[in-house]
Amino acid sequence: MRILVLGGTGYLGRHVTGHLRGLPGARVSGAGRSPGAGAALRIDLGRDTPERVAELIASAAPDAVVNCAGATGGDAVTLAEVNARGPAVLAAALREAAPAARLVHLGSAAEYGPGAPGTRVTESAATCPLGPYGATKLAGTVAVTASGLDAVVLRVGNPVGPGAPVTGLPGRIASLLRAAGPDAGAVLRLGDLSAYRDFVDVRDVARAVGLAVTAAGPLPPVLNIGGGEAVEVRELVRRLADTAGFTGRIEEDGGGSDRSAEVSWQCSDITAADAALDWRPKHTLDESLAALWAAARTAPHGPGGDGTP
């Protein structure tokens, strides 16, 4: 089976690519905005025309395409180019170059917006994203589900695990803990940690992608991929600090992002993924945090490295 992975050099993409390469009979190739670094093809979904993308995809002749490309930060224009235009261009290119290929696209639980405390959101729930990130990811989902292709969107919760970047909260906390070291007098000053989030191990996300790629027959248009439970961010920080052996103090200044304040609860119902893919998380949150810390404490220091506070 020939599998083309877009965005394979990012956090999720690296784990997805590694997992897919371990599947029997899989021949995995990569595509990204920069040649090299695991990307055999140079494809920029945010800027390339559908015709150019179609030509490149035709040269790869994939049986399946996995789209891990996405932007989590930046201005609204950047988010729209990558998260909304990108999937639309990819779907158009696939209809022309490889209409029989299965498309597995990584979406985000941010597409749902605020959840009701104590409830798990299903794939049929109304979507009401509050910011540009969730809105652009939702636009990408619509482009994929309306494409007429053999496609599925995996709506991923908050990924955690080895290699988590400092642009996300788990990776940032791990980096701060590494910088603090064993100093008993160290103080971590953080924003409001009262929100609840659904954390899922990045390795479980990669396994879900593998199952979606190889599943026989059509799949539901959208499947939630999460941990299936809401964890207070404060609890995640405490457990990660314990894993790191941190003996200092953690203080909350009451600040934080507007999105975190407005979305106080997120939790996904993962029943459909179990039914369609026979998938459920294998890693506990403590296992995810242990793997995150093991990777973070040995990461190289330097600009842009995961070990940089």
Count of helix runs: 10
Uncertain regions: pLDDT < 50 for 5+ in a row?
Answer: 302-309
Please indicate the percent range of residues in DSSP E strands (runs of 2 or more). Answer: 15-25%
Shape from CA axes?
globular
CATH level 1 class label of the domain at 2-157 and 201-227: Alpha Beta
Strand sequence of the main sheet, in spatial order?
3-2-1-4-5-6-11
Number of strands: 13
**Which CATH architecture of the domain at 2-157 and 201-227?**
3-Layer(aba) Sandwich
Order of helices and strands: EHEEHEHEHEEHEEEHEEHEHHH
How much is the radius of gyration in Å? Answer: 19 Å
End-to-end separation in angstroms reads: 41 Å
Secondary structural class: alpha/beta
Helix content: 25-40%
Q: What features would you describe in this structure?
A:
The chain has a domain at 2-157 and 201-227: Rossmann fold, CATH 3.40.50. The protein has 309 residues and is α/β, with parallel strands linked by helices. The protein has 10 helices and 13 strands. The chain starts with a strand and ends in a 13-residue tail after the last helix. The protein has helices at 11-21, 50-60, 76-97, 132-145, 169-180, 202-214, 233-244, 258-262, 271-277, 285-296, and strands at 2-6, 27-32, 41-42, 64-67, 102-108, 150-156, 158-160, 187-190, 196-197, 199-201, 222-225, 231-232, 249-252. The chain is globular, with a radius of gyration of 19 Å. Residues 3-226 form the NAD-dependent epimerase/dehydratase domain.
